[in-house]
Specification:
Length: 195
Amino acid sequence: MRRRVVPGVRLATLLLLAGAPISGCGIQETGVVGAGRPPVGDLLPPRDSRVLLFFFSPDDQLLPVPRHVHVPWQGGSGTSTPESGEASEALSPLTAVTTLLDGPNKAERRAGLRNAPSLPGEASAADRVVTRGTTVEVRLSLRVRRLSASARDQLVCTAAFAAHAQGAMPVTLVGQDGRLAPADCSLRPVPAPAR
């Protein structure tokens, strides 16, 4: 008498026998092997050709937004930064503040970025920005006490990062109704891991 074998059993037996040589190839299990630190890179455009503006995201988070700025070549030794190391006039803190007051550009608006509602939409509201030692003073032709806390944060962070690469300078807002206490930007860059 002949037994009838179900075709599914034959297939399962064949797969089991075919997999046996693969699983027994002699490679031992190992633990996690360290491969060093993760790669780190600066994703922002070079500081000599951008300003860092602070806009609000659709979920009301204050975000740094790099804006590429065309800086005309000054001639000379082939570098675009002055010998003194100071920012060029095109990238001054005043330029950053007036650019912020102009609001997000078309692409930034499409991404949902915006200014605080109490921030004026006129670049002419910025009279001047003075950097003295370790402080920045932003003079505006408006009443600074009427600005919301979020509008103040935008101005403070934009001016601080325009004056110092790490934004580590207190900023005083001065307007038609007086002077506010110096404030620091609430956002700080995350330090890159040592290489």
